[in-house]
């Protein structure tokens, strides 16, 4: 979806197709942004889990910096914005190929089995194979132990009373929701995303007369 959106935007013959391409582009990015930390949290060892999720955020910022650099390269080219979007296509291809080699999340497989969506013994073997791939040189006994721990945890969760939607407005859930929504709200209301999106235009208004000069300064913003 990310690749299709990038290519559609790059070759769009009219405004409507560009909007469709941008929509698909955004949906693809949104799915990746939320799926990646969930996958990391479910598959990474606890010792490096936080570091890997932080690296994911680092690469997001690195991608923004690369976007500023590519923008600077094509800012004075006729229809340069098409090349800017097309430049993301190779990265999409690399990402797609890499995802094909990723094993399924063992936790997700076992969760499906505990919910009656597959044979537990067969799914357990599959989860063990996936975890072996993820852990590399880990011993089979250690991997089997981790799979059993995941199963034990999921069994305990399954015994708990199912939570209703109204519970997010109660107790600790309410506090967590207020903090989460507050962080998103203040991020948006302070205008931080708008500054990043329209950095070149803002710098032009601030006195950098040339578009190329403004985009070069935007690169410094990306570095910061």
TrEMBL record:
GO biological process: D-glucose transmembrane transport
Keyword set, alphabetical order: Membrane, Transmembrane, Transmembrane helix, Transport
Localization terms from the record: Membrane
Residues annotated as domain Major facilitator superfamily (MFS) profile: 1-224
Keyword Transmembrane included in the entry's annotation: yes
A Pfam family per the record: Sugar_tr
Gene Ontology MF annotations: transmembrane transporter activity
SUPFAM superfamilies hit by this protein: MFS general substrate transporter (SSF103473)
Major localisation: membrane
Transmembrane segments: 15-40, 52-71, 83-102
Membrane topology, as annotated: Multi-pass membrane protein
Gene Ontology CC annotation, any one: membrane
PANTHER family: D-XYLOSE-PROTON SYMPORTER-LIKE 2
Family affiliation: Belongs to the major facilitator superfamily. Sugar transporter (TC 2.A.1.1) family.
Protein name (record): Major facilitator superfamily (MFS) profile domain-containing protein
């Amino acid at each position: 979806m990310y690749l299709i959106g990038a290519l559609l935007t790059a070759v769009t013959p009219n405004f409507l197709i560009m909007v469709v391409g941008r929509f698909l582009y955004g949906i693809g990015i949104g799915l990746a942004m939320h799926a990646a930390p969930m996958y990391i949290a479910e598959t990474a060892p606890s010792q490096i889990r936080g570091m890997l999720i932080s690296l994911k955020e680092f690469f997001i910022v690195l991608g923004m910096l690369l976007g500023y650099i590519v923008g600077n390269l094509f800012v004075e080219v006729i229809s340069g914005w098409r090349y800017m979007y097309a430049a993301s296509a190779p990265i999409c291809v690399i990402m797609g190929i890499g995802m094909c080699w990723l094993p399924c999340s063992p936790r997700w497989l076992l969760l499906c089995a505990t919910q009656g969506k597959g044979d537990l013994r067969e799914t357990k073997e599959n989860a063990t194979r996936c975890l072996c791939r993820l852990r590399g040189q880990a011993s089979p006994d250690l991997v089997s132990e981790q799979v059993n721990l995941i199963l034990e945890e999921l069994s305990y969760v399954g015994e708990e009373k199912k939570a209703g939607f109204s519970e997010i407005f109660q107790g600790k859930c309410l506090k967590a929701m207020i903090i989460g929504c507050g962080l998103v709200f203040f991020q948006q209301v302070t205008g931080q995303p708008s500054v990043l999106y329209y950095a070149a235009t803002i710098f032009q208004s601030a006195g950098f007369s040339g578009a190329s000069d403004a985009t070069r300064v935007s690169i410094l913003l990306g570095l910061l």
